[in-house]
Design goal:
The chain is α/β, with parallel strands linked by helices. The chain has a single domain, classed as 3-Layer(aba) Sandwich (Rossmann fold), CATH 3.40.50. The protein has a 7-stranded mixed β-sheet with strand order 1-3-2-6-7-8-9, with helices on both faces. It has a two-stranded antiparallel ribbon with strand order 4-5. The longest helix has 20 residues. About 40% of the residues are buried.
């Protein structure tokens, strides 16, 4: 059994693929549940885990749902994220992937995705996962421990498709962080199809973005 609590949205027909989507800092698994019908994906199970509650340094130590502690607002700060929390979240998200496999969904039919801090974790886990995944989805996110991607990226996921979307007016995760992450992904594995979309919005999602997400999901999941 996974240690993370989660909610699921099952398709009408038996699931033939799965999307595990991680919410952002301070939210929960219900945050993106309402968008599932807008993605128009048939036969896909959506799994929305809830992050554990942690004290978050940049928010004055306030305890809230978080995948890891953030110690600094600077994205170039090498001590910005709590590495132990990232390792523990990696273990727990990997358990969710294994749970889907045990239910008959092969790894190559599983997408890992997320928003903001959840996107950062989806990229971190997915790039290092030992089995080929269907794709990685990062909305308004960034790379954590980005200086390690070259040596830690798994061979199995070197050519895994990645969709990166970001808001031009994002004042939480600046678009420069999103662009730098997309560039690092391309540099670490030129053979991987990294798709970049930007939208005139802040730290949020838009209807236009969700259309692109749905189209991309249908493409990588058939």
């Amino acid at each position: 059994m996974t240690e993370l609590r989660f909610i699921e949205v099952e398709p009408r027909a038996p699931a033939r693929a799965s999307v595990i989507f991680l919410h952002g800092l301070g939210a929960d698994g219900h945050d993106f549940e309402p968008v599932v019908p807008m993605l128009r994906t048939d036969g896909v199970r959506f799994v929305f885990p809830h992050a554990p509650r942690l004290p978050v340094t940049i928010n004055g130590g306030l305890v809230m749902p978080a995948w890891y502690d953030i110690r600094s607002l600077r994205f170039d700060d090498g001590e910005r994220e709590d590495e132990a929390h990232i390792a523990e979240t990696t273990r727990r998200v990997t358990e969710l992937v294994e749970r889907e496999r045990e239910r008959g969904i092969p790894a190559e039919r599983i997408v890992l995705g997320g928003f903001s801090q959840g996107a950062a974790m989806a990229l971190h886990v997915g790039l290092r996962h030992p089995e080929r995944l269907a794709g990685l989805l990062a909305l308004s996110g960034y790379l954590v421990l980005h200086d390690r991607i070259e040596r830690e990226r798994s061979e199995a996921n070197r050519d895994t498709p990645v969709l990166v979307c970001h808001g031009l007016l994002d004042d939480v995760v600046p678009i420069s962080a999103g662009r730098a992450s997309a560039a690092a992904l391309r540099a670490s594995a030129p053979e991987a199809p990294v798709e970049w979309h930007q939208y005139p919005m802040g730290h949020e999602v838009s209807a236009e973005e969700l259309v692109a997400v749905g189209t991309w999901l249908r493409g990588v999941l058939g």
